Structures are given as structure tokens and as C-alpha cells.
Amino acid sequence: MVMAREILRIENLHVSVEGTPIIRGLSMTINQGEIHVIMGRNGAGKSTLANVVMGHPAYEITEGSIHYCSEPLEELSVFERARAGMFLSFQYPAVIPGVQVGTFLKKSVQSVSDEPLKGRAFRKQLNEAMASLEMEKSVLSRYVNDGFSGGEKKRLEMLQMLLLKPTLALLDETDSGLDIDALRIVAKGINQVAPDAGCLIITHYQRLLDHVKPHFVHVMIDGKIIKTGGADLALELEAKGYDWLEPTAGAEA
Questions:
Q1: Per-domain residue ranges for the chain?
Q2: Does this model's pTM top 0.90?
Q3: CATH classification of 1-85+166-180+194-253 is 3.40.50.300, yes or no?
Q4: DSSP codes of every residue in the chain
Q5: What is the pLDDT of residues 5-61, one digit of tens each?
């Protein structure tokens, strides 16, 4: 039996922001083809985790380690992490007035590629990805996220992800504010990437998991993972909330 390739390994991670501890001893391993979901209340440290893995300079690792594809991440800049195959989707994607979507996508793919981008091959890939996400070609001439609805912004995030083909996809509340149709399309994008990557999805809601089947669901409280289970754990949280887990908040699941 061939062992799955390790994508991300986090060991005893402690993170602070301006001296305030946010993550307090978190460990997790994500292998190729695995979908991990983190759920928890606001302020639990979920988005902090995604930002730390991607290398946001505002967060200080005070203890522990992060390895990506068996290599330590500490010395890599955000740009180097992106070139190495890491992708972070934002809860609130930025608006970039004056930059057309088509230009932005082409430059993004070129920036992480070691070889010159071939126009015909890129257009074919772009057309296929847009079709799978049910996106109109007219989007390409619009400015990035300028005047976009919430669903349009999240579809564009998924389009970037499909084109960049990450090894590790970090998805921070990609499902927030989406209607039923947009949620289905976003989930389709995640499912296309998932077999070849490791995925970490941060969400408050179980409804995304009707379309994306996780291998592991983790509950995060006060900067720690205090329980881990399968997809059924998300249903339990939907029904019961988080209060029933509070007494165990000091221990790892």
C-alpha cells in the first residue's frame, strides 16, 4: 500500500499577535487528498492559523513548528510559499480597481510558474475552469472584485485556485454569504482540487459539507483543537453548538 504524501505538519504551534496569545499548542497533519475542516466560534484562532501558515507578518510563532512537504516553512516569504504551491482564499477578497480579471489571472499563474506561459494552453485551461464554475467570459474584462457580488468574489477565488493548482489549499470561510447555487459551485471547485492537494477549510456552517465531504472535522476553542472527528461531528455541532465541548477545552482530542 502506497502511503499518502504529507503536505502539512503542524506541531505544538503557539502564535501571538502583539504579545497576545491566539493559538495555544495546536498540532495537525494534512496528507495529499485529505480534506480537513476547522470549526469554532469567532475568535477561536481559525483564521489566524490560515494566515500563519501562509506567512502573514503580523503573527509571531512563539513555539512549535510548521512543515510543508517535509520542509520547514519559517524562512519562506509569502511569495515563496505561493510559488511552492500554497494557496489562501480570503473571507473578504480584496478589490483591485483598474486591474482586469483576465490580466490578473494570467499574471498570477505566470508568477508561480518556472516556465514561460503559453497563451493557447493558458486560454484552454482558463476556458475549462470558467465553464466548470459557470462563469461568463465577460468577467475577464471587469476589474478584480470591483462591484462583484459576494458569490462572484468567491467564484473568482475558486477560479484562481483551479488555475494555480495548489498543493495546499487554505480556504478561509469561502462559503460565507453564499446562496444555494453559489455554494454548490464553490464546492465544485474545491472538489476538483482536493484529490491532488491537501485542503484546510475554515467554516462556521455544516451546509458546505453537504457538497464537500471532509475526512476530518476539528473543533477549535481558545486556540486549541479540542475534538476531532468525521463529517458527523459537523452535524453534531450544528445541532448542539459548542457549549458541550467547553469542559474539555484544556485537552487535545
A1: 1-85+166-180+194-253, 101-164
A2: yes
A3: yes
A4: -PPPPEEEEEEEEEEEETTEEEEEEEEEEEETT-EEEEE--TTSSHHHHHHHHHT-TT-EEEEEEEEETTEE-TT--HHHHHHTTEEEE-SSPPPEEEEEHHHHHHHHHHHT-SSPPPHHHHHHHHHHHHHHTT--GGGGGSEETTT--HHHHHHHHHHHHHHH--SEEEEESTTTT--HHHHHHHHHHHHHHGGGSEEEEE-S-SGGGGTS--SEEEEEETTEEEEEE-HHHHHHHHHH-SGGGGGGTTS--
A5: 999 999 999 999 999 999 999 999 999 999 999 999 988 999 999 999 999 999 999
